[in-house]
Fold this protein.
Amino acid sequence: MRLLNLRKIGAGHVIVFCLASSNLAAEITTIKVVGKDGRNVPNAVVEIAGKPVAKPQAASSVMAQRELQFIPSVIAVAKTSSVEFPNFDDTLHHVYSFSAAKKFDLKLYGGNEAPSVQFDEPGIVAVGCNIHDQMRGYIYVSEAPTFAVTNHDGEVVFEDELTDRFGDISIWHPLADQSITPELIVKSSVIEARISLDDPRFERLDPYESADY
């Protein structure tokens, strides 16, 4: 497989590459993200420009609070989507973000008392709790027709074949080292992207947290 172009974008740790689909040896249906040591990387956002190759994205999503954590810790939403922040803990939370893509402030609340938040600008929104500093979450707001978050196995699996349908592919993870070029390997119907996650905080974002509440 020939790598046509690779560029890295800003402080958001977004790694973007474009592949020559005519050179692919297989009908690609899966993108798998792993670390340099081969470990699966859950909670990585895979974004594909070009024609839609997946079901339309939901108009609303959920980032819950449970056991003093945001669950899931990483979600990806379409531009103009809303996100709900239900609190399942016995303590109150104060959820906020100072990110350029979206600033919001949900003062102390429990249960479903907080209103949903709409995300109108693309970008990466870091979410925290003003009471519990260890709580960290990330919302990736996308304008692309196709995007998803990798599961526990580090995979995004598409219903349709990607060959001859995609343009740029972006991979984002909050702990990715964007200074290191990813290694790309085609294995049957899978593109495997090896990225550098040398930050010890990786363990706190693994394993992948289910959105089943």
User: Anything to note?
Assistant: Confidence is low (pLDDT under 50) at residues 1-13, 204-213. The first strand starts at residue 3 and ends at 9. The chain has no helices and 19 strands.
